[in-house]
Design brief:
The chain has 71 residues and is α+β, with helices and mostly antiparallel strands. It is 48% helix and 27% strand. It has 2 helices and 2 strands, in the order H-E-H-E. It has helices spanning 2-13, 35-56, and strands at residues 20-28, 60-69. Strands 1-2 form a two-stranded parallel ribbon. Strand 1, helix 2 and strand 2 (60-69) form a beta-alpha-beta unit. It starts with a helix and ends with a strand.
Length: 71
């Protein structure tokens, strides 16, 4: 119970929360591509968008590039 009370007290002291994020999309036209490769490219796209969002200030969600995997 003490931990729950501590969390409640902490949350009551927070005035606002800001968030920045990056979002990536993926279009696959070939299902023989390695899943690990796809995940890496998708993560890199979202990460780059996150870096750009942070550089532009608080409370920003920016899109990454759409990855089209067809090889």
């Amino acid at each position: 119970k003490k931990d729950d009370r501590s969390k409640t007290l902490l949350l009551n002291k927070i005035d606002k929360i800001t968030i920045s994020g990056g979002v990536a999309t993926l279009q696959i036209t070939n299902d023989k591509i390695e899943t690990e490769e796809i995940a890496k490219k998708l993560f890199e796209s979202a990460d780059e968008a996150l870096i750009q969002a942070k550089a532009q200030g608080r409370n920003r969600i920016l899109p990454g590039e759409t990855l089209i995997i067809s090889e």
